[in-house]
Amino acid sequence: MKILLVDDEVELVSAMAERLSLRGMDADWTDSGEKALAMAKTCRYDLAVLDMKMPKLSGLELKHKLTTLCPDMKFIFLSGHGSESDFKAGCAEATCYLIKPVRLEELIAKIDEAGR
Q1: Model confidence, pTM
Q2: Three-state SS sequence of the chain
Q3: What CATH class is the domain 2-115?
């Protein structure tokens, strides 16, 4: 499974990608929705892990744009300070919605679930 991680917190998303890679998962990362869209045009991703709150393009907006490019892509949303409305929207539009800081084991379990 090819995974795309998108979060405006560079240290978090790069570390997450590295930790997933050490566990044998194929994960690319970026810190913006615009870059994620460019990456999705050149590479086929099975799953995207998106931060809900990002500048310029929110996780929800990015999800809608990625779905146009990759209709079969699955999604997991992350948020460090989400509201109840974000939670409801994220749950309705993704495989799951996780609160940061996310335990790596929990994220891996959710990735595995989404891949089934």
Answers
A1: 0.90
A2: CEEEEECCCHHHHHHHHHHHHHCCCEEEEECCHHHHHHHHHHCCCCEEEEECCCCCCCHHHHHHHHHHHCCCCEEEEEECCCCHHHHHHHHHHCCEEEECCCCHHHHHHHHHHHHC
A3: alpha beta
